[in-house]
histidine kinase (Kineosporia babensis), 379 residues
Amino acid sequence: MRTNRARVGDVVCFLLAVGLMVLALVDGLAQHIAPVPLTADLVLGGLCSLGVWLRRRWPVGFAVIAGVLSVYATSASGAALVALFTVAAHRRFAVLAPIVVGYALAPFVTLLVRPDVPVASWSDTLLGVALAAAVLASGMFVRARRQSLRERAGRVEAEQELRVAEARQGERNRIAREMHDVLAHRLSLLSLHAGALELRPDAAPEEIARAAGVVRDSAYQALEDLREVIGVLRADVDRSDEPPERPQPTLTDIPDLVEQSRHAGMQVRLDWQADALSAGSAGAGRSAYRVVQEGLTNARKHAPGREVTVSVRAAPGDGVTIEIHNPYPAESSSADIPGSGVGLIGLTERAALAGGRLEHGPTSAGDFQLRVWLPWPTH
């Protein structure tokens, strides 16, 4: 569909063709051209002027017809110039070149076809050449500008698609890292209680039932989490501007996480120095939760049955500081544990992305310490 700008352009081109046709009529009357050739000239010129309305649909065909008719009809010169501009603006140079050559030869053919038309002076000839060159250059400029805008729009669209793809991939990678922490925590609970059932087959029925219940719940939750993350990673939808639906823990969920570990048989002491946390940063809260979760998982792997101390201090402006202490394991204790060290690498990356820092290693007291600081802006 044509725009209002295109309609205005067509009107201007039609008026230009009609105006030049009127000038040709006035010039023909002034030169006392016979009525029959003059009438035929005007009829052909009028038909070419009406053809201006079809120039966008058939630019090459219109240019060829207008060029051929302009050999006889001098009143069709305006329509021919419009046709030349249209071809230059809408077709590549390989199509334009033969038409330009034909238009350049048309005045010489006119001398043979219309001996009644006086030969133009040098000044008129130079003026006509300059006008045709200006029309040709204008059309080529319009085409070059339109092509440049089209290419720019294509680049912008391609860059936007690339940003969307990168954002989608980044979101999926983030979800995968989230699920590593979740599954590692749940599977470590499952392994702990399964080992307890294996080592104490003569335990009281209540303890066996409780341990079996934890194993069942942990396995069920692990399967649910795994099913959800696989569904998200397979989904071909743009989730670049949405956080993952699960998990979405916050700082206020850390005490529940500690209680779950106690319920699973761990000895965990929580030093809680964080109040009014509901107004804290969601990203910092989620990262803090993952730090505590991974720290408890590591302690369960490397120091089973030993007391773990979790310290959480949070305040706007001061940030969130988390310290986890557990007895330092023997060097060989982690050799046969799958994925040892991967969790700390992921936590280091998570803290760096959040603008924080992570430190871990042995202390002078012989404990293993995991210390993380995360920013918490005041606004």
In short: The longest strand covers residues 307-315.
